[in-house]
Queue: 2 jobs
Job 1
Amino acid sequence: MSDDIENDEYDDEEIDLNALPDDELVEQIQNDLYDGLKEEVVEGTEILLQRKWKPAKILSEALVGGMTIVGIDFRDGILFVPEVLLSANAMKGGMEILKPLLSASDSVSAGKMVIGTVKGDIHDIGKNLVKMMMEGAGFEVIDLGINQSVDDYFAALEEHKPDILGMSALLTTTMPYMKVVIDEMVAKGIRDDYIVLVGGAPLNEEFGEAVGADGYCRDAASTVDIAKQHLALRKAG
Amino acid sequence: MNQPLPPINIIACGALAKELMALKSINHWQNLSISCLPAKYHNTPALIPAAVEKKILQIKANNDAQILVAYGDCGTAGVLDKVLQKYDIERLPGAHCYQFFVGQNAFDNLQEEEIGTFYLTDFLVKQFDSYVWKNLGLDRHPELLNLYFGNYKRLVYLAQTTNDSLTDLAKSCAARMGLKFERIFTGYGDMANSLERFKQNKIPFLSLAS
């Protein structure tokens, strides 16, 4: 029997998550998340809770940690959209358990974000991933949904008073609407009250600068980093 | 005796190959030389500008005839236009092939009518399994369907030809996606008009859009 066959058999063996020490369990959750195995991620999350891990620690080390690896491999062309969606779905399973526990605890919000897909555009996969990663990083996220007009954004800014406004677009025909929103913010004298982040498949750094955004976010994981950097700059300034 | 028409090179998306060949044949445009790039770039628009530029340079190395590009913006976010400006080359009007098949005004009306509209052309109906279903992983993970298309309400098949079996196939695509079905016959639409006018008058493609 060759080594390869032995390895295949080993791979097929079911891993008893309960039997793993904490560090190996976290690694296994990350692997399961990478493979989009929702049930296993949920089980691992529950085990860590039983072991008295704090929800925030499970979220950042196991789930966000795993999803960050997924984000990097997506950026590098190793993973593709379907795999990322399966991973996101697995992460969502874990987050559904943790979310009520997180909001019940005294954890301080990292910041508040209003996010929505711009008018004329109904695509929300990227936006939903950003929402999940931002929530995973401790941000409060108000998701406006798709097809949002200037008035919709302004009403949400007024109501929720966020630190960050996030706008998403998938279409080259709808992404210019981001400039419409930002120009209106300038006209109303409220542009500098918010950090404006933009993202979406056809966008790039140059476009973000051209429309007057504070940052262009190429993926969900980098959105978290960019949001944190801008918030830190604001606090320092 | 008529002078032979000057040669024209067309660099086209492979998704338009059949339609361009049909137009060439119907109209006896023997002076058109059509070079197609892989239609799979439809799913990776960032690769289109460099591929088009490579093709432009290949053609220019062989002849100095006029070049036209049979692409829309096709998700390149203006990068294709920047490449074409470098060489003073025109492309078809609009953002996508859907638009130049149905015409800009009609396309705007369709979008206005239902923002959640998914479009198929003859090519995309035929290639639905590979370009849509398999590419999005729906053959392996049908549970992702709602994540991809949950905001869509209808599928509009913009038909270049009258073909009952293609219409049936398009209907089955709509059913698989859980969308309402509609078929609009466009023929070759603005693509044919643009090509003909350019050939006759050398009017740039883009100026025809306005």
Job 2
Amino acid sequence: MAAVQETIDRVKGIDVDQYRYGFETQIESEKAPKGLSEDTIRFISAKKNEPAWMLEWRLEAYRRWLTMTEPTWARVGYPKIDYQDLYYYSAPKPKKKVASLDEIDPEILKTYEKLGIPLREVELLEGVERPSAAVETEDGEAAAPRTKIAVDAVFDSVSVATTFKEELKKAGVIFMPISEALREHPDLVQKYLGTVVPTTDNYFATLNSAVFSDGSFVYIPPGVRCPMELSTYFRINERNTGQFERTLIIADKGAYVSYLEGCTAPQRDENQLHAAVVELVALDDAEIKYSTVQNWYPGNSEGVGGIYNFVTKRGDCRGANSKISWTQVETGSAITWKYPSCILRGDNSSGEFYSIAISNGFQQVDSGTKMIHLGKNTSSRIISKGIAAGKSQNTYRGLVSAHRKASGARNFTACDSLLIGDKCGAHTVPYIEAKNSSAVFEHEATTSKISEDVLFYCIQRGLSQEEAVGLVVNGFVKDVLQQLPMEFAVEAQKLISISLEGSVG
Amino acid sequence: MTALLEIKGLHAEIAGGRKIIQGLDLTVNKGEIHAIMGPNGAGKSTLSYVLAGKPGYEITAGEVYLNGEDLLAMEADERAAKGVFLAFQYPLEIPGVATLTFLRAAFNAQRKARGEEELSSPDLIKRVREIAKTLNIDADMLKRPLNVGFSGGEKKRNETLQMALLQPSLCVLDETDSGLDIDALKVVANGVNALRSAERGMIVITHYQRLLDYIVPDIVHVFAAGRIVRTGGADLARELEATGYAQYQSEAA
């Protein structure tokens, strides 16, 4: 069929360089000496004025890491990483101690402005201009309620700004860079850090434990519903620099928080390592909703450059009736290795995982989730939508497990894959273990190819080839998009169309 | 009368080399409705795809002009923006995309292509609802994913809705009567008739006379083995109903 041939030709000529966030910010930075050693870790810890126990914690992780080997079980391939050829700490050089936004390096402010991240509270208070292509409610009418979002902006290794701090403080919510929390709330951090993802967990998490430089810390006190969405925006700017952020979110009894995470990086020929750890703790009756729009630089059309995104994200439903929900839209990175998981420890707790993973060009995605049912009457739900285009490989890897005492465990899993063109691959690797006879697990999976007839139908109505693909794909991922907070959903919808540009002929 | 569509000596084959259209000449003037009737496999649907620019067909000879412009040189979406509309025999399903969302995307894509301003959502919704009412389409159907789980009648009413919204200059209706009961047929026919105008031309492709009782054509063509073998007025359709296509098939062969 000519249509298919044309698609193949176009895919061959595909250009992933549609990346809009590939610019670099020219600022002076302060770096740790290249390479990894106990000295590097001491340097980072000293830079952060950390308590002594924190340094010990890091060193212990480092020593452990030296005995570990890099995992190879994921369906991804990449040249060996030289861990001595990286910088582990890079911070924009401060002119003096920053007391307000006006004193932040204007180049950094400009960076966030270009990225569309509001660091000035006033802009949000007055209401930011809404994009016209707002996500539709059921009858297609655009609805965009005005909401406030508090932002923590992490630039390379440090947090450069956190907004709405005062307002949050009034509600009793702690939202600050983790480096600051280590100084201001050391007991809280010490109590929870590493309790969900222990320092010994896995190669990349252990490395992170040794060298993490910043990230966000959130604590919601008992019974408090966080008055606004919290968000962290990660930006890797510096060359040859690994980003190792650490996020810790605790929702105390009966608390609720919705947290958003966004990421971008400049376009570079060499690969950059991003090994983050995110830990969530939900106590009795608490709920945490964690959303990610990951748009790290994916590399160019020849597969050169891009971020290696090796991330450990895990939530612990520690209390009864607690709930943790992960929603992710993954469009970036050369390689993604990431399995946001829930440990359903508390009785009646529930976990959710909603994912859209799009790969194009030479991207490799190995992503999924783990739902570990430990408590009684726990439930989990997994909706995964994988879209592969170009020459990319897209794998869903998931584990659903019910332990002996987890009576009444329930899981529903639906994994759908959509293929665009015939040079890409979609793979589904589900692991299901039920050690309790009362567990009820359901698993559904589909793989389909985007149909040339459907595309022609759209094009006959006047849509361009790319608009048609964008429309069909957005329909395919709708169930997941609906889980995102409004502002993010709009952004994600646009991002999906952009990342598929040039994927069909 | 001005020629809206001119097809001259058209030959087309399906990828793989099977000849489908073999020397077609046809002129549709503004304001005219032409019916194309013929047996299965005569190439009627292929003609509609070739006009709309569906990939997978090769034009080996001939020319096609829409309002004097070379239609075959245009991409399919360009043709749509120029006013070519194909009502599909089997409209396709798009899961997760609300009908209204699809209508807006199509409407604004065509406007953009013509360098016109896009219509705001509230104005568009108003316009869609007005047309929907005349086709017995309720608000609920507009919210449902496009064609997913629609009955045959709903699909064809939806095609008519799209046609009325997009206001094309050339409507090609491919077997619009298939899958319709008599009540649905009347609703769709009324919708199509409402679009009859001095500025618009239509090609109605059908096997049966039945549809033409409701959409009365100006000219009827018998299409067999890839070309027109006979042309007449509306009464030719009734004659065919009585005599069948057998004689033309042997004639063409």
